[in-house]
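Why does residue order matter? Because the sequence determines the fold. Keep that principle in mind as you read this record.
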Amino acid sequence: MFSPGQDSTPETSGGATTVLVPTRFVWPYGGRRVFLSGSFTRWSEHLPMSPVEGCPTVFQVICSLTPGYHQYKFYVDGEWRHDERQPVATGNYGVVNTVLLTGEPDPIPGMLAPETPRMNMDVDNDPFQRMQVTLSDGTLQEAPRISEADIEVSRHRISGFLSTHTAYELLPESGKVIAMDVNLPVKQAFHILYEQGIPVAPLWDSYKGQFVGVLSALDFILILRELGNHGSNLTEEELETHTISAWKEGKSQQSRQLDVHARPFQNHLIHAGPYDYLKDVAIKILQNEVATVPIIHSSSQDSSFPQLLHLASLSGILKCICRHFRHSSSSLPVLQQPICAIPLGTWVPRIGESNGRPLAMLRPNASLSSALSLLVQAQVSSIPIVDDNDALLDIYSRSDITALAKDTAYAQIHLDEMTIHQALQLGQEANSPNGFFTGQRCQMCLRSDPLQKVMERLANPGLRRLIIVEAGSKRVEGIISLSDVFRFLLG
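Structure:
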């Protein structure tokens, strides 16, 4: 994969001026040591490629090339390789990738800054992305898009699998599920969420003898916003004795007083049984816009003590799909398609575009209050935190709010005065010297990544979204969530 830069550098030799085009080459398929060689090095020099920060399987190098026709290959862990997704030709060195560069600026439109080298793919006006490649004759052509027939074949086979396998397949061999009594004080409840590192817990009503709902990080966000409201009837002292049951009932009453167009407060339990099909469980999660669904088993109609078996999530269902089709992925044509070529995810619109849903992003100096408001209003689980160039620094998730439960930190803060950067630093200084996280927190992918790779990443427990970034600059280009993937797969 290559990407010609927009700025060209003139080179003078013997009175003649040669324009050099900064060109980025990318090897996105992993390896330990990766080199680039080609006609521009006379095939005698191997240029070392460096892994992209945050994407260890992606290697890149930038070369200044003269306009014209070039051939190149990659030397990966001692073997010559070529990128099958890029234009190829057969020559003296076997199958090689090809590129024809002109001295003109990159003709592919985009919203990136002029000084930033761009990928050879970009966002189209359609509700999903198209991929463009440069052929050996220098012309731009849209990459073959997967046919509707292939999409339907893939959807039919996945739907068939989900319609014949039950929630029992989601149950781990061992583990624990934490539930809370509705009479527990909310202050203690959120401290438990923080200590156990969980974003949600089912609620048990001993008087009714049944599970009646869930307590989530969203509840904590709403409580913090209410504490920050000068007209709040709930004081910090009342959190000592204010129970989960009282909190839920109070929010339910407020919900009934809201405008009919407002989203109602969820005050009943969305659950499933172990014999429910995986497709029905996935649809239940999507339709009710919840992160998890408790799997509850009752041995009989009059059972007084139902068993809480598991908390089902889309990531667990996706893991079952990946495991089932791991050795027969060819039966699902859509899996090998790059995510930019299928209707998937939310993408940053190009300059001048008015269509499409805007992508919520915040700067690290934004207030915690603005982040919490955005999480609630945009109904998203996390927000990318970016620098002035929209390069990814971190993410702020709903579950991060439970960190304020440590030592009752929320009692000493003002949401409008604390920044997102400061909020992320609470209790995390030892993990990140500069206050921002790397590694597991910021899970990224590239627009060229195949859907199968994205699905396998999202199948990891606790991961709900992948941030699509530009290789090298880490500029945010879009987001793919678990719900995006399932809405596409289920049609």
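Confidence is low (pLDDT under 50) at residues 104-143, 256-265, 429-439.
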